Amino acid sequence: MSIDVHCHLDLYPEPFKVAEECKKRGIYVLSVTTTPKAWNGTCKLADDCPRIRTALGFHPQIVHQRSHELELFDTLLSSANYVGEIGLDGGRGFKDHWKVQLKVFQHILRSVNNAGGRIMTIHSRASAAAVLDVLLGVDGIPILHWFTGTQSQLKKAIDIGCWFSINPSMLETKKGYDLARMMPKERVLTETDGPFTKLSGRFLYPWDASLVIGKMACIWKCDIREAEAIIEHNFKQLLLGNSFS
Ligand code: MN
Question: If you measure from the C-alpha of residue 203 to the centroid of ligand 1, how many angstroms do you get, rounded to a whole number?
């Protein structure tokens, strides 16, 4: 069982082929959108496949160009059980649009809260402290995807109930590896963030999420089968542990 809880299925050069391959291989995918406008088209990739679920997103790196889509986000929210990719980005080139990012993220979280909460996949590049501040008290389950904050920010994230999704690229750096070690075993999931990630020069596909398992087995000092069972169990708990999936 391979699980990818953060993947941009619609942004692969041939999205239907990738979706078809996921169906064939029996992969569980949370297919995230970067704009509300992409929602309808991306949902089509999940047709006839209950293992692929679509998340309604609004990526912080592009919200400044599309803040008019916020209304559409609110309209679509009632039909979306998952939300993402959402969040903040304080990295170079995006920090200039911090004000609008924050406004949009706060608006989205208010809408999610009013709608009774959602499972959310969250971007927090160079912005973990602010992301955690805004998340506090919001109904739902936040999954911090590709978390790159500090260890003390990680502790805070754990305290407020965040989950974490880890991709193969993240484990290539010492910082990422050390953070992964600190994450509570029962709140860890796997992802790829494909097609935005590469490993050894090749693009990652949803089935590559399983590459994380071997490394987590080393971290958890268990065998690969056991690590796989932990991730599967976590995934089931995530879906069971809320009323909105
Ligand atoms: Mn992403």
Answer: 14
